[in-house]
Amino acid sequence: MHKGPYVEDIREKQPVEGLYLVRDKNNGITKNGKPYIALNLSDKTGVIKGRVWDNAEKLDPGFDQGDVVCIKSFSVLYQGEMQLNIHAINRIGADDADPRDFMSTSRLDPEQCCADIQACIETISDPDLRRLLELVFEDERITSAFKQAPAAKSIHHDCLGGLIEHTLSVTRLVDMLAGHYETVNRDLVLAGAILHDIGKIQELSYERGFDYTDEGRLIGHIVLGMELITDTIRRLPDFPAKKAMLIKHMILSHHGQLEFGSPKRPKIPEALLLSYADDLDAKMFDFTQFIKKEQRPETNWTGYHRLFNRYLYTGVFEESPAPGAENGQPPQDV
Amino acid sequence: MHKGPYVEDIREKQPVEGLYLVRDKNNGITKNGKPYIALNLSDKTGVIKGRVWDNAEKLDPGFDQGDVVCIKSFSVLYQGEMQLNIHAINRIGADDADPRDFMSTSRLDPEQCCADIQACIETISDPDLRRLLELVFEDERITSAFKQAPAAKSIHHDCLGGLIEHTLSVTRLVDMLAGHYETVNRDLVLAGAILHDIGKIQELSYERGFDYTDEGRLIGHIVLGMELITDTIRRLPDFPAKKAMLIKHMILSHHGQLEFGSPKRPKIPEALLLSYADDLDAKMFDFTQFIKKEQRPETNWTGYHRLFNRYLYTGVFEESPAPGAENGQPPQDV
Amino acid sequence: MHKGPYVEDIREKQPVEGLYLVRDKNNGITKNGKPYIALNLSDKTGVIKGRVWDNAEKLDPGFDQGDVVCIKSFSVLYQGEMQLNIHAINRIGADDADPRDFMSTSRLDPEQCCADIQACIETISDPDLRRLLELVFEDERITSAFKQAPAAKSIHHDCLGGLIEHTLSVTRLVDMLAGHYETVNRDLVLAGAILHDIGKIQELSYERGFDYTDEGRLIGHIVLGMELITDTIRRLPDFPAKKAMLIKHMILSHHGQLEFGSPKRPKIPEALLLSYADDLDAKMFDFTQFIKKEQRPETNWTGYHRLFNRYLYTGVFEESPAPGAENGQPPQDV
Amino acid sequence: MHKGPYVEDIREKQPVEGLYLVRDKNNGITKNGKPYIALNLSDKTGVIKGRVWDNAEKLDPGFDQGDVVCIKSFSVLYQGEMQLNIHAINRIGADDADPRDFMSTSRLDPEQCCADIQACIETISDPDLRRLLELVFEDERITSAFKQAPAAKSIHHDCLGGLIEHTLSVTRLVDMLAGHYETVNRDLVLAGAILHDIGKIQELSYERGFDYTDEGRLIGHIVLGMELITDTIRRLPDFPAKKAMLIKHMILSHHGQLEFGSPKRPKIPEALLLSYADDLDAKMFDFTQFIKKEQRPETNWTGYHRLFNRYLYTGVFEESPAPGAENGQPPQDV
Amino acid sequence: MHKGPYVEDIREKQPVEGLYLVRDKNNGITKNGKPYIALNLSDKTGVIKGRVWDNAEKLDPGFDQGDVVCIKSFSVLYQGEMQLNIHAINRIGADDADPRDFMSTSRLDPEQCCADIQACIETISDPDLRRLLELVFEDERITSAFKQAPAAKSIHHDCLGGLIEHTLSVTRLVDMLAGHYETVNRDLVLAGAILHDIGKIQELSYERGFDYTDEGRLIGHIVLGMELITDTIRRLPDFPAKKAMLIKHMILSHHGQLEFGSPKRPKIPEALLLSYADDLDAKMFDFTQFIKKEQRPETNWTGYHRLFNRYLYTGVFEESPAPGAENGQPPQDV
Amino acid sequence: MHKGPYVEDIREKQPVEGLYLVRDKNNGITKNGKPYIALNLSDKTGVIKGRVWDNAEKLDPGFDQGDVVCIKSFSVLYQGEMQLNIHAINRIGADDADPRDFMSTSRLDPEQCCADIQACIETISDPDLRRLLELVFEDERITSAFKQAPAAKSIHHDCLGGLIEHTLSVTRLVDMLAGHYETVNRDLVLAGAILHDIGKIQELSYERGFDYTDEGRLIGHIVLGMELITDTIRRLPDFPAKKAMLIKHMILSHHGQLEFGSPKRPKIPEALLLSYADDLDAKMFDFTQFIKKEQRPETNWTGYHRLFNRYLYTGVFEESPAPGAENGQPPQDV
Question: Most D CBs within 10 Å: which of B36, B37, B79, B301, as the mutation test of the D interface?
């Protein structure tokens, strides 16, 4: 079916017909006793509010949270916020929509990320570790999921392709750091970086919105990832037991602390380095995204960030030089 | 070789010749500049101090910590503590001594414990879980190690046979508790109890004293145990995926809290029950052992217990009247 | 007065007249400027929403939160949730209603629980402890309150009869555990279990909804319970001072940790056992109740549990097949 | 028996015969295999080391830690530290020594402290609270113990008379603070201050060194003190229940936090004030004592203070100029 | 412009015209789809709700949160709460209103507080510290801000003049305490108390409501205050380096703990005393204010206090007998 | 004076005369009652034990901890550990020894580090920040101290030149990271990295062993460093206030958390990045140094590391490539 206008393109006072993902659905009742439905609708370009003021009881059974729906509506602007008054809405079949239209996606191309990681694998000197990595990604189901999965349900890299974006970033970080700290075994820390979150392809579902799987909540991506590696190693007959033990330790300890869900803390320098790189990349992503999103003309401060437990200062960015200057060209006379 | 007198049988002022395990070895130098060696020697009945006052430099290379040694010595009593003044000492070959002579052993018979656990397995209704348990213990190497291993390097059940003693105790506890809380799935919680610490057969070495293996420190018994179960399930072709997930969750969550090394916290009642039973059994063992060991005539209090972070009261035990007396009858003349 | 239909029996589109407890009362104002009143009404079978859309200002002074009210209303179903549109409402006198009609009650019969506890008291060998327990429950005001009180304002066993239900459960647990750990003094741990929460009869008020008393908040059930025991012991002239000290210690330490409000931590095995049994029983009640209540067809997971700080898995329960079915046989026609 | 020279008066190279309390006794063995005994001996003026180099085995059974002993010895100075080489030592009977000779005592006169507290009681307006306080101290056993007990086994005010010194100090603090914060009920906070640690007369033993009693460890001074007050109130027939509840709350909450052993936290301003005054007085005592004791010419810093978890700066004190100099006048020629 | 009626003087059913500060402004939409604006308006006597039901879209751009507005409205009483239905509203210029009309102000006269602090400064013996304090307050901009600033954005002393009120209170407390603990250097602790929060004149903005400045959030009042003192000391040529170090330490450590934002913990008794006095004064202010504000006839308890994490008991205050009665005399007939 | 043999060059059974730093000095007394002195002596190549068995009382006043001493001694090997039996020892004047001979020094050349940092400064685009950095290092006293100071009293980089080694490493890390995270302001984060620990030149003394200064303990390097920057900025008339605020924030927040002594937590991405880089560099240094130092043939594990609270695995290193390869030569064909 035809996707219709993207959220970011919707303008005021126009009819809007198209396909959107139902993020949240809440039934309300007006003080006159009339039922209505409040929705958050989204596609990959953003989120928009929807309201079903009429025929709410009749339209209600036709769709649920998590569905992709086809709607007819009219856009209104209220207090600077766009809103769709909906008069027709119902779910469409799973095959009638492309999931990538409805969920936010990484700003990077997953295929390119994957190629970059493959290239990195080829630089690994240790033949056992290199072969292990190659074998993991020879499995098409793994590679396909790895390119599509988000890195989290919410918080950092919570977009399609987020897992591979984050993995590539951490891999590049540890590559730089392994150059800086020469005693670090580059092969081991690179292999650890590439595989550290591989279990997330089983921990998260991302077909229609992002959520945890049963396995994700009961076993968790750390152990799921380690099991995937164990399974792969089983197919490599002469894989040295010690290297297997060390790469498992890299995965198990990558959250750095027991209270963050790692059953073991880093006990080799490579594992320590990986845990810092992983944490730093997640925090920097979250920190800078939040500052970008919360830029507001009237203040130098974001709203309160619940996880960081603080307000962030947005004023540094405004220093960024005039357009054009970044490329070394003088600003135009305009 | 002949074991010689057990530690608990050594009396004052007699020659002592026999085999003992070197628990600790420290070199010292007297203020006169003369070297000596201070030892702790042990067998399964206890620990005794040893001192090499003469020829220390010559005898020093002949043995290390962790060796079983053959000694010639003379016993002296100083300040109520027995001590061996050693004039000859050297290590003996691994095959010349029976390890069970040198390490403390469970007060229970491991064979009987094993039979009790086997009997318990047969009461499990669920055919998948029962078959899983049977298959685990059909492996002679597993069962043999399971009967011999300690449950910890130190702290609770740190004796040969300690693992199976603790496992049986926890199994009995959850069986009682599953009867008390009827909604609990008895089969699942029993299977979890029997398998919860199975990874300790790989986490600990116990041939000559107790210590952690490399795998024990880098992977840990929780994940090692889960892998052992995964391996066994792989040999059960139609094992339901959901049951596999639940039994793994039981193992992974049995420490109850992330900060105690469980990568997942209990999310089903059976796992919650198991985590309490495991914790209670370890604490009760430690608590009551410490009180027994620290009974002293001059005070109602033990010394300071580092892990409990308190002094324990020893006075309750002394109340236990002679048998028969509790019911108001005078003790019999026997 | 006549109770009228129980909450769990109310069906759609019918007039409803009867007596209900006002759990919450909130005044609102519609966007048209018209006042209304939003209520939660309850009886022992459940909670239902009520709305006063008309004459809100006039009816408002006639009742408060905590009152039992007589209402006239009409039931409507909105979004699957029953709701009463109320046109008449006013409080009734304290004597016109039976409290047990309006608060949830234990699934167990308090009289039977009390008899079971009495029977347990008779199995205590120690004459001093047995006499102490008998004397406590000879006081009709204590026994009567003990049978009626809840175990908590909210959280676990928050129903009439909840205190005695929890007490009986903990008593049975420690009886089992005392059999398992033989060095434990059964008499002492049983006496502790039976008395551990006795102070809650003064800590909580439960005539009209559950709340804390002034004493409950300023002194607390741990110390109130200990004082009740001290008062009773005073009436037993030759009660041994040491036993008094130990039974007091059992009460004072039963929360296990200082930060949970125990002024002393367990220093005898009996107190350690009691603190585990008490904690386990509260947690298991809460855990399993929450799973039962939150069973939903569309997911294997409960909503977020604030105190456990996690989502719980509801999928284990659904496995329980019909009897007989587990062995692959069809259920018999019976 | 004759006390002999006080510790603070002992000089080098002289025979010392007299009575001292054995604080610590440790048996050692020289590298030549000769036993010796290392002691800390004390009287109210300080602590001194003692060594039994000869006949250690023979003299050993004649005394224990906690005994008052009669010794014959010779004083030597080694590395600036005085030490007694002992050739005769044995315990003396309980009646042969005055305890006040052997334990450190408050720098204040307990009788005067007691009189000051009595005077303070007379300023309390509330007749019930005043009568309660009077009745407590009419009991000669209470008053006598109150004047003699230490405030702690170690840490702050760990001297004979320390309890009443600390109590008077806290009482004066809250009197000042009640004047500063006018809404505070002075009567209640004064009564609370005077009684807050009264349970320490049962928590600590102080006949021969300071230690905890069984009750002290199993019940604790907070609850023991509250029970003493309950007992006293029982003898005041018309004592208002609410005042009893409030004064109990003052006692129970005076450690401020659950994790410091208070079963309830302050919920009235008077209790908050008392908890701060108590904490401040203990901390200031400890802080300033430590600085005085650790003044050393070569550094501005004390050694590491374990409880404060830091080093303290001793340099402020040295600034105190000679009297008169502060006002810019030169010190007089005197 | 004319202020108009104060919030505390507004009565029901009357036209209200005047100037108020917009504390919060939220746009809503009625279920009929009609926009409205919900406001909190305040002046120094309190806060009142305002609603713009008509012409919301037209009036909306005319004012923002933080503005002082001139309104025309009509007062209505709903459920005991006064509310203004607004038909005209727009912001006024900064110079048309006196800030002191619109923000709550200290119950004390800032001029008198300032005079009291000046008087206190004159009692300081140490000429360096006295001169430092004099020089700080000779700067008219500092003194003026010091008299006007609040002590916090919310929580304690969050009113105009709150900073100087709190500073005077802490100064008096440490003066009393320095008298009580004689080894304390009164000059140093007094200077510390007077200057401890001086950095708040830069940390907070208070022209139109209270908020943090950029410096306040990025540097903080502790370091800002220390810098102000450093700047002043620079103008005192012979100021002793050691005293400068000590007064800085007083400022830096006055929050007592690292986790409360002090980069150093108290290491001299004077700093310890100051940190207690500061904490006590803030807590007592908050505690007693909350109890006063939450006095309610139907209960002895306040609502839940988020920071103290508890409910507070309001019943002690009600005991305060009529004036005169405390001395046993009947109240006069007046 | 002549330095004499370096510690790392001392061999067994030879006379040793030379200059060494007294790290620790402890007086002991043999069981024969003969005094002796136990020393740790060091120079920049290591630490060695010294013993004064004869004439201890006479030699004792001639030197103290922290002195450089001239000794005459004889080397003995005992249990594989070298030890000097000393017969003459006395301190030498401050000018008679070069401090750099006696304290461990960075493996890097401080001059080269300084040149590298200078080169880095020249790459900063922002003229204000570049000028600030240039001005700081134009002060010869600062630069000289910066090249000499250690980064810590113990723990990481506790050697002469350690501060500049650590600073250069952190500077390089943030330069790499600023390239990786493009929205980060490279100039700001580089300036922050170069200056973050500059206060340590005042926090630590390092003339004769490493210790904290009075200022170091009472003010701390975070605030001392910020003050140094404030002082420098004061000399730059038009330095923008906002940049001053931001660079100060970088310094103040670089420990990342309040409980680690930062009075503010990072609120801009540049500060977050710096805090991670600083922490990572310290931890990696400590982690890898400990593993190198604790390599032991008989085990794959280090001893217990107190700060990391764990044992570290040393086995990864042994994989290090074949000999010869490290020097850039291809491995020989053997």
Answer: B79
Provide the residue type at E274 as one letter. L
Contact A210, A154 (CB under 8 A): yes
Supply the DSSP symbol for F296. Answer: B
For B185, the token pair is 């799935």
Q: Count CB pairs under 8 A between chains D and F.
A: 22
Residues C124, C129, C131, C134, CA torsion sign: negative
Which residue, among A158, A178, A64, A175, has the nearest Cα to A117 in the 3D structure? A175
Q: What φ, ψ does residue D54 adopt, rounded to 5°?
A: -115, 145
pLDDT (tens digit, 9 = 90+) per residue, C6-18? 998 898 888 999 9
User: CA separation (Å) from A77 to A37, A50, E32, E57?
Assistant: 18, 12, 16, 11
Other Cβ atoms closer than 10 A to F265: 20
DSSP of C206-257, one letter per residue? -SSS-EE-HHHHHT-HHHHHHHHHHHHHHTSTT--HHHHHHHHHHHHTTT-S
Closest CA relative to residue B251, chosen from B234, B268, B237: B268
Sign of CA dihedral F256, F259, F261, F263: positive
Going B66 to B70 to B72 to B73, the CA torsion angle's sign is: positive
Q: Specify whether the CB–CB gap between F194 and F167 falls below 8 A.
A: yes
Chain F residue with minimal CA distance to B32? F30
pLDDT digits (tens, 9 = 90+) for C136-152: 999 999 999 999 999 98
Within chain F, residue ranges assigned H as helices are 56-59, 110-121, 127-138, 140-148, 162-180, 186-195, 200-203, 214-218, 221-234, 241-252, 269-293
| SS3 of residue B43 by DSSP | strand
3-state SS record for chain E: CCCCCCHHHCCCCCEEEEEEEEEEEEEEECCCCCEEEEEEEEECCEEEEEEECCCHHHHHHHCCCCCEEEEEEEEEEECCEEEEEEEEEEECCHHHCCHHHCCCECCCCHHHHHHHHHHHHCCCCCHHHHHHHHHHHHCHHHHHHHHHCCCCCCCCCCCECHHHHHHHHHHHHHHHHHHHCCCCCHHHHHHHHHHCCCCHHHHEECCCCCEECHHHHHCCHHHHHHHHHHHHHHCCCCCCHHHHHHHHHHHHCCCCCHHHCCCCCCCCHHHHHHHHHHHHHHHHHHHHHHHHHCCECCECEEEEECCCCEEEECCCHHHCCCCCHHHCCCCCCC
The two most distant CA atoms of chain F are separated, in Å, by: 74
Distance of CA B89 to the CA centre of its chain: 29
CB F18 within 8 A of CB F70: yes
Secondary structure of residue C82 in the 3-state scheme? strand
Q: E83 has which bridge partners?
A: E49, E76
Across the interface, of E29, E31, E214, the residue whose CB is closest to A300 is E214
Is this structure's pTM higher than 0.90? no
Q: Measured between CB atoms, does E99 come within 8 Å of chain F? A: no
Beta-bridge partners for E295: none
Say whether D32 and B32 touch across the interface (CB within 8 A). yes
SS3 B121: helix
Cα A201 from chain centroid? 12
Contact E75, E13 (CB under 8 A): yes
As a whole number, the mean pLDDT across chain A is 88
- Mean pLDDT score, D52-59: 89
Task: Return the bridge partners of D41, or none.
Answer: D22, D48
Model pLDDT for residues C116-138, shown as the tens digit of each residue: 999 999 999 999 999 999 999 99
F290 touches chain A (CB under 8 A): no
The pLDDT assigned to F318 comes to 53
Q: How far is E331 from chain F (nearest CA, A)?
A: 55
Contact F185 A319 (CB under 8 A): yes
**Rounded to whole angstroms, how far apart are CA atoms B187 and C320?**
11
